[in-house]
Design brief:
about 170 residues; alpha+beta; Aminopeptidase; eight-stranded mixed β-sheet; globular; 8 strands; single chain; about 35% strand
Length: about 170
């Protein structure tokens, strides 16, 4: 089942952005935004560790997952992937261009993920992030995620979604 999301406008005090589904024409810009964020965090980059970014359409969309972008003035300034499986949705590739951070873009992308997961009937969203990435940990914690575990690399964070009731179900 594929649920079509409309373009959603997001405004903050000083900018207007559109949250929309990934389009194959976005490929190069999306890859750049994500890789620049990784390079900034780690201080170096091994592109071979990110094969899913070579073809987002094949890595996400054709597998039934979703990928969204935030666009401002014709430029991709934020990204997020949403994987479906194991009874839950999982956020991946959340990234916001450095010059567009702290303006609510990640929150708008997260809201899109929550809406998409809920529409598909998922009851929780997970995100994995490294404890050495304090801005990401703070973002997810501040958004209501709780830590439920960790592995040798990542913290495992979970956000329960409210149960959706369909109109007319009680009639």
């Amino acid at each position: 089942m594929r649920i079509e999301a409309e373009k959603k406008l997001f405004t903050s005090d000083d900018m207007l952005a559109t949250i929309r589904r990934f389009d194959p024409k976005d490929q190069a810009e999306v890859r750049m935004v994500v890789l620049e964020g990784l390079r900034e965090h780690f201080g170096f980059l091994d592109p071979s560790l990110n094969p899913d970014l070579e073809d987002i359409q094949a890595s996400f969309i054709t597998k039934g997952d979703e990928f969204y972008v935030a666009e401002n003035d014709g430029r991709i300034v934020g990204t997020v992937g949403l994987l479906f499986g194991e009874g839950r949705a999982r956020i991946v590739r959340m990234s916001v261009a450095k010059d567009h951070r702290k303006r609510g873009i990640a929150t708008a992308l997260l809201r899109q993920c929550i809406e998409s997961a809920a529409q598909r009937g998922f009851r929780e969203i997970w995100a994995y992030t490294q404890p050495e990435w304090p801005d990401a940990v703070s973002f997810y914690s501040g958004s209501g995620f709780e830590q439920l575990g960790r592995d040798e690399i990542d913290l495992h964070l979970r956000l329960p979604l409210p149960e959706r009731r369909f109109r007319g179900a009680d009639r």
